[in-house]
Structures are given as C-alpha cells and as structure tokens.
Amino acid sequence: MERSVDSFAKELNAGFPGTAVFLGEPMRKHTTFRVGGAVSLFAEPKSLEAFVWAVRELKRLGIPCLIMGNGSNLLFSDGPHALAVLSTARLDTLRLSGDSLISGAGVLLSRLGSAALEACLTGLEFAHGIPGSLGGGIYMNAGAYGGELKDVVEAVTYLDGSGTLRTVSGADCGFAYRRSRFQDTDDAILSATIRLRPGDPKEIKAKMDDFSRRRREKQPLNFPSAGSTFKRPQGDYAARLIEEAGLKGLAVGGAQVSEKHAGFIINTGSATFEDIITLMDAVKSKVYLTSGVILEPEVRIIP
Ligand SMILES: Cc1cc2nc3c(=O)[nH]c(=O)nc-3n(C[C@H](O)[C@H](O)[C@H](O)COP(=O)(O)OP(=O)(O)OC[C@H]3O[C@@H](n4cnc5c(N)ncnc54)[C@H](O)[C@@H]3O)c2cc1C
Fold first, then answer.
1. Rounded to the nearest whole angstrom, what is the distance from the C-alpha of residue 7 to the centroid of ligand 1?
2. 1 pLDDT band (50/70/90 cuts)?
C-alpha cells in the first residue's frame, strides 16, 4: 500500500499544485484532543475539484480513506494507521442566497454563525460555539442549547461510495440525536444549504454572546478534549450520572474526567489513546453500577 500512497501523493501534488500533502502525519496535530498516531497520508485538497479527484482516486487504488473536518470529535489510536485522511478545510466557500447560506463542508460553524449574524438571519446561534466544520456538524447532527443542525439543513451535496455526486434534502438525511445517515455510509459531504429566517441582529448577537458565556463558565475550554465524551442517555445527562458516580477528577495517565464538567474527558498534557479508552471504560462501568445506565461514546473512535 505504501507505494500506491506515494504515487497518489505525487499525482495529487502534480495535478493540484498547492495542495498540502503529508506522509506519516501524526493525527495529534489535527485533533482537538491532541491525541493520535501517524496516518499513511494526510491531505488538504485545495479545491472542490481536487477533493473529488482525491476521493475517487483513493477508492480506485483501494486505499482506505477517512474524511475529516476540524477534528473536534475524533479520537485516533496511537497508530500507525494504514489510512489516508482527507481534510475538508479548503472546501471553504460561503455565500448568501436569500435567507440561505450555501456553504462548503469545511466552513467552521463559528464562521457560519458570524455570517448569519452579519446577514441578520436567525436559526444558527446555537452552533456558533461548536468547534467543528459544517460537514462534521451534519455527520454528527451537532447541537446545543435546544438547536440541532437538523433544524436548519435544507440540502446536502455529497459524493457517494461509488464516487457519484448526489444531493439529498435535509428531511432525508436521517437526522436524530447525534445521528445522520452519513454515519452508515462512506459518503463525503461536500457542501450544504442552510435555511435561516430574517431576525433582529441585536437579539441574534445577544443569544450568541449568552451561549458563549455559558460555554466559558461550564466547559474546560483551556484543556484539549473532544467535547462531551458520551451521548446524552434518554431523559438524563451523562455529566450528571458521572458526577453522581463520584468520578469527577478521576484520572488515568494524562486523561482526566474534568473537574469543571464531568461530561468532558480532558487531556491534561500527555494523554495516550490507551489512557483515554481505559478511563472511558472505567466511567462506563461505574456509571452502570451506580445508575444502571449504559453510556455510549459520542466521540468517534478510530482504533
Ligand atoms: C470544546 C468542545 C465543545 C463541543 N461542543 C459541542 C456541542 O455543544 N454540541 C455538539 O454536538 N458537539 C460538540 N462538540 C463536538 C464536535 O465539535 C462536533 O461533533 C462537531 O460537529 C464535529 O465537527 P468536526 O468538523 O470537528 O468533525 P470531525 O471531528 O473532523 O469528524 C467527526 C466525524 O464526522 C466525519 N466527517 C467530518 N466531516 C465530514 C465530511 N465532510 N463528510 C463525511 N464525513 C465527515 C468524520 O469522519 C468523523 O467520523 C464539541 C467539541 C469540543 C472540543
């Protein structure tokens, strides 16, 4: 596989000069957890055309491929990984069309929120503080403070498993709590239309500021993490159950259940994948023993 990865890297560079391509790239450099070993190849195709070519070519060569956005919900093992990772960072076009934003998958949710405010459009305030991209947000149906991407996604354009471009309506994205149909496929989300409503910019700004303040107050934003480690169980909160089980502050190596927000596992500096997984298992077992609830990871694990 290494030979085909090398020749793929050369062709990508030759066909699309300016595309960033790295061999043996450590994923700790690209994830908010700051954990993860080397992948065979990491590339940031410089345009939509380059991205589509890269996905199709990797498929043709039989090289396993993972699409990533901002790496804020990903936990890679310490590797090495026989895997090509394509970042959507340069799929970053964004334009306004009536009350909609038409956006590349790599646009950060924070930028989308600011663009909505600038255009006096309401509906995206909840997403402003989520540190992911639009593509990752759609994949996860990311949400906060009573909103979810499912409420605003009108249509998604993606490349399906056979390399064909397709568009699906928001209603057909299979959205549910932290779920979308994309989790069951190897589709690559390329862009989406976000439908908003006209609103009062003062009210939009006030909501965004309030959500940001609440995040700063409640979340351990000064430590690397992937946000909430576990999904919210039916009718309860993972953080409440973890705290009730007496696990706040529990540590394994460099991984710790945050003292500030028990729903977050943080990297206190030198966490390995094993530290985090061992701590997650310990939390799951103790919460099950104390409450009978089985916690499910929200973070996507790449073993
Ligand atoms: C401090 C902090 C706070 C957070 N707060 C919240 C919150 O309030 N609400 C919430 O829902 N989440 C939250 N998160 C988690 C995370 O930000 C979201 O899940 C976000 O949607 C992930 O987007 P991303 O671009 O970083 O995706 P990544 O982490 O890069 O990827 C996540 C998954 O999506 C897939 N994926 C990404 N882009 C594409 C694409 N274009 N096509 C196909 N698949 C793709 C990846 O393969 C992976 O499986 C938080 C994380 C942190 C670190």
1. 30
2. confident
